[in-house]
Specification:
The protein has eight helices and five strands. The chain is globular, with a radius of gyration of 17 Å. The longest helix has 26 residues. Helix 3 runs parallel beside helix 5, helix 4 packs antiparallel against helix 5 and helix 4 crosses helix 7. The protein is 58% helix and 12% strand. The chain is of the alpha/beta class. It has a five-stranded parallel β-sheet, sandwiched between helices. The chain has one domain: Rossmann fold.
Length: 206
């Protein structure tokens, strides 16, 4: 069983990954933000470091998928490889922060990687308003995220919604985190678990 959690910066992906790890006993696979050598540089100078950062994430996520397929464990993954390729990289290109040449190169690498792996059994998308994202980003207090603009988050949100609308890699469950505060409310977490259970039940009965 491979469950991936998608969502904008500050939507609660890592927290939900931790909670599902505890509830189901699934192996948790996290996005590498602590050891990432490009994040600080990227947020300080996006145009210079965008390609480097996106290639780093793409490589890291591809290796995670190869391990998932090789080991065959039940896993919950913090962010998917598709978000890098369909949301973050094209957004940087559209904003003029990644050159067309670099984006074309990046896309070719992604297409090769995508041909070698399969999508998750269930994708969970955490939908959030911009105000909620900003509040959560400030709450966790990561220094390198201080420079993230509302415009940048808004552009990402628009791309997330378009991507989710056209998602065709398997089942997808949308959780509105403005309405379900699974971080602070056990009741809301229970509702999220029930929704996931229903989707997993459907997978096993198909």
């Amino acid at each position: 069983m491979h469950v991936a959690i998608a969502g904008n910066i500050g939507a609660g992906k890592t927290t939900l990954t931790e909670l599902l790890n505890k509830h189901y006993g699934w192996e948790a696979i996290y996005e590498d933000v602590v050891k990432n050598p490009y994040l600080d540089d990227f947020y300080a100078e996006m145009e210079r470091w965008s390609f480097n950062l996106q290639i780093y994430f793409l490589n890291n996520r591809f290796r995670q998928l190869l391990d998932i397929q090789k080991n065959g464990n039940d896993v919950v993954q913090d962010r998917s490889i598709y978000e890098d390729a369909h949301i973050f990289a094209p957004n940087l290109n559209a904003m003029g922060l990644m050159t067309h040449r670099d984006f074309s190169n990046y896309s070719a690498v992604f297409e090769l990687m995508e041909s070698l792996v399969k999508g998750p059994d269930l994708m969970i998308y955490l939908r959030s308003s911009i105000s909620n994202l900003v509040a959560q980003i400030h709450k966790r207090g990561r220094d390198y995220e201080n420079s993230i603009s509302i415009e940048y988050l808004s552009r990402l949100n628009e791309r997330y919604e378009a991507w989710v609308h056209n998602y065709d890699k398997g089942k997808i469950l949308i959780i509105d985190v403005d309405e379900l505060n699974f971080v602070d409310s056990k009741e809301d977490l229970g509702v999220v678990i029930e929704k996931i259970d229903a989707e997993l039940s459907g997978l096993f009965s198909d």
